[in-house]
Amino acid sequence: MAADRPVKRKRKGSGSTGQGGEVLLRQRTDPRSERRFEPKASLELALTLLGMSVAALLAGAGVYGQWFRGEEAGAHPAAPYLLVGALLLGAAAGLFGQWSMKPVRVGDAGVALENGPGEIERIGWSEVTGLLLSESALTVQGGGTVIAVPLRAHLAAASRVLSEARKRIPGRVADIKEDALPAPDDAAGEVRPLEPPQVAGLHCKATDKLIAFEADARLCGRCGELYHKDGVPPRCITCEAPLR
Ligand SMILES: [Zn+2]
Questions:
Q1: How far apart are CA 61 and CA 72, in angstroms?
Q2: Basic and acidic residues bias located where (predicted)?
Q3: For residue 99, what pLDDT is reported?
Q4: Rounded CA separation 239/169 (Å)
């Protein structure tokens, strides 16, 4: 009875990953996606902009009063105070104001920050060395880069980053408490397809073999680690996902 059914091997040990035996090896051109989160406009931003505007007004008035009142009137006695006030207010707004109001992306390619049109700073999951949660931000470290996701403007994105990191690279999130951030909201963020990654010229994580042709590349579907098709290990070296 059922003698020639394929034998399902039960995995024992390493119970922490629990991915149910699904093979996660991906081709370079397999579809990938990410969510894009717009920052939430906040009181801090409004106050920052207001502070900057008042500072600019004070600076203008101060400069006028100090140097542009004409020969006979001379410098206005209040002008230096206006200038100092403008400087202090401008510095305070710059220091304490909320400036990290950039869109954040989270998905198969890791965590990314949109620094400008077409200028994206990205940390792949396989490059992440650690996540840090503070009162004000969730910080993703890795690959010589740090991306801070501010909680006030980007709570939905931060929740998504934390929950994906727990699934993809659980070993690097162990320090953060389970309920530290709310569960991610599937309605938050706009899902967008990702371009296939540029991999030619990179090296296989397992064998260090040069990936000369993009068709030779294989990716871990969970952490995005890169392998040559001839060097795919049974389990991802970075996240231990089953690859074969
Ligand atoms: Zn992996």
A1: 18
A2: 25-37
A3: 55
A4: 6
Architecture in CATH of 33-41+100-193 = Roll (2.30)
Q: Which helix (H) or strand (E) holds 58?
A: helix 43-67
Structure tokens of 71?
């020969």
The conformation of residue 210, written as its DSSP 8-state character, comes to: B
CA of 19 to the centre of ligand 1 (A): 12
Distance between Cα 44 and ligand 1 center (Å): 38
pLDDT class for 101, splitting at 50, 70, 90? confident
CA of 166 to the centre of ligand 1 (A): 13
126 alpha carbon – ligand 1 mean position (Å): 7
Q: Give 170-218 pLDDT, tens digit per residue.
A: 999 988 998 899 999 999 999 999 999 999 999 999 999 999 999 999 9
pLDDT tens for 111-153 read 999 998 889 999 999 999 999 999 999 999 997 899 999 998 8
Ligand 1 centroid from CA 79, angstroms:
62
Hey, what are 189's tokens?
A: 């963020």
Spacing, Cα 168 to ligand 1 middle (Å): 7
CB 220 within 8 A of CB 233: no
Q: Which helix (H) or strand (E) holds 57?
A: helix 43-67
Classified as helix, coil or strand, 208 is coil
Amino acid at 44: E
Q: How many whole angstroms from 24 Cα to the centroid of ligand 1? A: 8
